[in-house]
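Subject: design request, 352 residues
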């Protein structure tokens, strides 16, 4: 099914990829191209059930992740689609509550899935051809109202792939301490540290503009949620901000705090840096919502911190399967065709 969709694109830089010398942390082998090629050939002919690269710990918030689809061609852009499992109960059911019911309601509905089916949702990742770019980049792609971009899960997935599954570099051998041996061939196999990590790309010029106009700030705006686990020192960010505007809250707060508000506040230099640091340290800015500032004389304009991210929206024409999932090859071509426009929006104009 051919359809026009709005793609929400956010760029991330690849900080580490491959195998590193354990003593010096120096990169040794397996660049992004090698990793993508290895993943493509490792998944060929496999059933989806066997594309899982790791099993989440019982006490973690990590979902089970599978490779749903992948488009790879040498010297071209690649797209990976992952399937993120939604937890079910012991009987394989997912429950839904009636939000109009009162607390403690037993007004629930359940969905039951056949054996062998794993409920979940798809996430899309666009790896740009690294041969033509100095920076190693990939982007998360979202469609519709989906808020999860899946980046943390992808990093875990690829890290585990390098640790245990890369068909060219993982050998069925261990050293005397039980560590995996990695190498280009059996003769050169040795102890290395596999790594894959990324960082959300932020546009420094826009954040510097906010810093330079600190004295003009008359209000601070917040939207979505501030989670109590996001802390500065010994105290949560939400509590520090509320204290600053004389809105004290209890020192212990376990649930999420819903904030969608504006309040008069002119931070000093240290307070503004605290706000920026907490937002930048978040693995994904959606974890603590978004922070914005309003300048004197601009009451109707909010300068959101998220406008400092390399991201944007663009219309693309793609092929979907009958369940509405975008085909990886189709997405790769659609993004490639509009690459220059995407970069212009993400890096020059930002995204409001």
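Subject: RE: design request

Done. Sequence follows.
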């Amino acid at each position: 099914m051919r359809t026009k969709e709005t793609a929400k694109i956010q760029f991330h830089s690849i900080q580490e990829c491959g195998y590193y010398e354990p003593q010096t942390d120096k990169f040794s082998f397996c660049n992004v191209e090698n990793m993508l090629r290895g993943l493509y050939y490792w998944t060929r002919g496999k059933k989806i059930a066997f594309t899982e690269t790791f099993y989440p710990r019982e006490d973690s918030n990590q979902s089970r992740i599978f490779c749903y689809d992948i488009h790879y061609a040498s010297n071209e852009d690649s797209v990976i689609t992952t399937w993120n499992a939604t937890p079910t109960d012991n009987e394989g059911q997912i429950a839904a509550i009636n939000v109009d019911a009162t607390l403690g309601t037993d007004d629930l509905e359940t969905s039951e899935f056949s054996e062998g089916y794993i409920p979940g949702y798809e996430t899309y990742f666009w790896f740009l051809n690294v041969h033509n770019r100095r920076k190693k980049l990939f982007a998360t792609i979202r469609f519709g109202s989906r808020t999860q971009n899946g980046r943390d899960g992808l990093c875990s997935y690829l890290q585990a792939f390098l640790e245990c599954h890369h068909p060219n570099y993982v050998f069925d051998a261990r050293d005397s301490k039980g560590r995996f041996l990695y190498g280009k061939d059996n003769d050169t196999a040795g102890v290395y540290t596999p790594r894959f990590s990324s960082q959300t790309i932020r546009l420094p010029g826009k954040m510097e503009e906010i810093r330079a106009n600190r004295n003009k700030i008359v209000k601070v705006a917040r939207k979505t949620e501030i989670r109590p686990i996001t802390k500065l020192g010994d105290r949560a960010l939400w509590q520090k901000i509320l204290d600053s505007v004389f809105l004290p809250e209890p020192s212990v707060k376990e649930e999420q705090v819903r904030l969608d508000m504006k309040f008069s506040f002119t931070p000093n230099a240290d307070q503004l840096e605290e706000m920026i640091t907490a937002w930048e340290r978040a693995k994904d800015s959606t974890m603590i919502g978004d922070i914005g500032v309003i300048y004197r004389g601009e009451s109707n304009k909010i300068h959101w911190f998220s406008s400092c991210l390399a991201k944007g929206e663009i219309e693309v024409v793609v092929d979907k399967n009958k369940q509405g999932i975008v085909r990886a090859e189709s997405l790769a071509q659609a993004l490639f065709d509009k690459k220059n426009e995407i970069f212009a929006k993400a890096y020059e104009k930002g995204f409001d």
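Helices lie at 32-43, 151-164, 204-212, 237-244, 269-281, 328-337, 339-349.
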